[in-house]
């Protein structure tokens, strides 16, 4: 199941794991496994990838990063198949992602004996990239009645949905705001009119999807597999230039 109606769907380059994710979700449809369990599985996969990097098993690290990306899609698929959307799952997923992203880049910094300043810049850039993509994507999902668990502006704590506890939503929302607040505010400041966009063409969203976490992990996996780990941090610093290019394109597309 897509997060968008068929006519508004686009080729998402970061979503290469959707087919295996659907297979995994369908496999757990009639079991007691919940989307939260799948989220915890991708956390474990990410930790194994980090351990592989530390032990210079770069091919295996790449495999587990791809697996992490697939499982990252599978938790949402399972929630849709079982019709159990939850803010608990949405925020746990996002908080887990950003923590793993930081630890992955920190591990790359460690094994390459690089600069901690460059590592932090790469992390900041990586998160801004992902935030821009998610910003545009959530705007589409809200505009065309797609998956509405995510909101364009995460300001107030949402009311817990059926089957989840408000206490859990409160805690995870606070964690989400702490982790993502600065990135959300920066992207909004750079493109505050995006939410009123009349159109975000499919071809444009396909271009922006290179900022999706799945594509980012694919790049890291490829560079690790070819033992080019020292290029990972510089790549995400330079890749951030496209943030301004995509924002400029969006404004031209919706120019009055």
Number of domains: 1
Q: Under the CATH scheme, which class?
A: Mainly Alpha
Oligomer: single chain
SSE pattern = HHHHHHHHHH
> What is the helix tally?
10
List the uncertain runs. none
Overall body shape? globular
What is the straight-line distance between the termini?
A: 34 Å
Number of strands: 0
Task: Produce the secondary structure layout.
Layout: H1 18-27, H2 35-54, H3 58-81, H4 87-112, H5 116-143, H6 166-190, H7 202-208, H8 213-225, H9 232-239, H10 241-253
Can you tell me about this structure?
The protein is mostly helical. It has a single domain, classed as Up-down Bundle (Four Helix Bundle (Hemerythrin (Met), subunit A)). It contains 10 helices and no strands. It has helices at 18-27, 35-54, 58-81, 87-112, 116-143, 166-190, 202-208, 213-225, 232-239, 241-253. Helix 1 packs across helix 3 and helix 3 runs antiparallel to helix 8. It is globular and about 45 Å long. It starts with 17 loop residues before the first helix and ends with a helix. The relative contact order is 0.17.
